[in-house]
Amino acid sequence: MKRLLGTTALSLLLAAPAFAQSDSAGFCADGWIAADTDNNGYVSADEHAAATAGVYSGYDADGDGMVSRDEYLGCVTAGGQAGEPGNDDEFMAADADGDGIVSVDEYRMSISTSYEQSGAADMPADQVAARAAAHFRLFDSNEDGKISREEWTGSPDETSNRGLGGRFDMMDTDQDGQVTRAEYDAASTTAYERAGQAARDEGVETENGVPVFPYHFWIN
């Protein structure tokens, strides 16, 4: 029997105001940007390109065409995205295989299934997926793609963000402390392709684009 993530964790993701759309101006504060603009449950290549442009603009707080580490971390930790510590019951519910860790796939599937069964129609799946992905990355403090019980029940500090800093370093391919638009686009294109492959590996067709949940867990 499939166990679902507790309502407390899902409610944390649903706690922020719901917006029909969120653009680059509100990206950092809102914790998401609309990618699935036609609301069909998939992010097409064109929608991805538009969302990528908006996300980069949101990161680039001073508008100089470059994103510094401080700009990046300031954006991704804004707007209350860090959430609250989880509890043991929710950890066990998310740990579907009972191995003592919550993998990114376990977390994504728990949130996705819980959202579908919650009937939370006031918040788009696009937004829930984006906020869930940000929440996972903040708790995965050692950037190993999984959350231990200690990480789950601890409270992320303002940069428990070794994981977030690691993402910045990955995008900053020339290691000059700045992520250019070209570097960000290259990283996002690779992530989009991997998200599509992950969906296909799960038996999901990607003719219409990448489903919103795997999309947001690979992007940004």
End-to-end separation in angstroms reads 33 Å
Q: Low-confidence stretches at least 5 residues in length (pLDDT < 50)?
A: 1-8, 16-22
Which structural class is indicated by helix and strand composition? Answer: mainly alpha
The backbone outline, from C-alpha atoms, is: globular
Taking all Cα atoms into account, the compactness measure Rg is: 16 Å
User: Mean pLDDT, as a whole number?
Assistant: 81
Total helical segments = 11
Quick one: how many beta strands?
A: 6
- Main sheet? 2 strands, antiparallel
* Largest sheet: spatial strand order: 1-6
Q: What is the helix content?
A: 40-55%
Chain oligomer state: single chain
Encode the helix/strand succession as letters. Answer: HHEHEHHEHHEHHEHEH
- Residues in β-strands, percent: 5-15%
Task: Explain what this protein looks like in three dimensions.
The protein has helices at 7-14, 27-30, 45-59, 69-76, 88-94, 104-118, 125-139, 149-153, 162-171, 181-201, 212-218, and strands at 42-43, 66-68, 101-103, 146-148, 178-180, 210-211. Residues 1-8 and 16-22 have low confidence and may be disordered. The two termini are 33 Å apart. The protein has eleven helices and six strands. Helix 10 crosses helix 11. A two-stranded antiparallel sheet has the order 1-6. The protein has 220 residues and is mostly helical. The protein is 52% helix and 7% strand. 44% of the residues are buried.
